[in-house]
Amino acid sequence: MLQQRRITIRELLSEQGEAAKMQLLAGEAGLHRYIDHPRMQKPSLAFAGFLENLSDYRLQIIGSTELKFLATRGPREQKQVIDAVFDLQLAGVVITRDQTPPDIILQAARRTDTPLMVSSFSSSVFMTNMMLYLSHRLAPMQHQHGVYMDVFGLGVLITGASGIGKSEIGLELISRGHRLVADDMVEFTRESQKIVVGRSPETLRYHMEIRGLGILNIRDLYGAAAITDTKRLTLVVELVPWDQIKPEDRVLGGERETDFMDVKIPRVPIPIRSGRSLAVLIEVATRNQLLKQRGIHSGKEFVQRLQDKIEQGSV
Questions:
Q1: Predicted confidence (pLDDT) per residue in 165-206, tens digit
Q2: Closest by alpha carbon to 3, among 138, 171, 116, 121?
Q3: Which residues are catalytic?
Q4: How does DSSP classify residue 219?
Q5: pLDDT at 306 > cutoff 60
Q6: Which residues, including other chains, have CB under 8 Å from residue 11's CB and lie 6 or more apart?
Q7: Which CATH fold would you assign to the domain 141-296?
């Protein structure tokens, strides 16, 4: 299930306060408020009285332009617009370029317990850096059962029913020189419209559970070269019982995709049967995906040659 992530202002200050050169000026009681979107807003129109599109779950940035515009209004009008803005219970407000905020803004922040911060960066630099951070920090997340491997440089998710042998196959791939990302539970985030990145939850990192052997630390057993922390998802390998593969899929296969976090990811079903080297088959499936990325489609070329032979009457 896709999880919408968020970050509190307290967490933001803890994780990015030093990097973003931010200091809290007022509103400490509101540090529990949170941001749920990486995009920030500049309340220029709000200072002119238009509050309709001002989001209370986005970080508000006040720069030199906004303060200069505010200074052109009379004291009574300033108080009206500032009170109206801060009465929205904003998640947080940042004033850039180390500018000293007018008393009317400080008073409104204290009255409404709105976190008010100042940064020495300019608005453009602050917003660019913060958006990069928030885009990663707030990226949609999903947890998926399976074994996640780095095979020939591609992120390969091995899925299948519980007890079908996913971890054992992952262990065999590790012994063949490939790298473990996560076992049992994989944490995926959608970093952009077309990129999904997987990693292991902190508590499970570098470990595998093998029936009969218990919990194994792969880094200790095979060394640092056998593990990696993150990988972009490129291929999903689904382990299925032999009798569930359709006859038409046995030879021609076909292009299959799965909708993973709203991103189309190539999917390969591999039937389970005694005596098959599944680790080798996964290696071949991954090599085949590498060829497809280069524009080489073996199945399509075979079908085209067969069609040509049929048309020529030489089959």
A1: 899 999 999 999 999 999 999 999 998 889 999 999 999 999
A2: 138
A3: 145, 166, 184, 250
A4: H
A5: no
A6: none
A7: Rossmann fold (3.40.50)
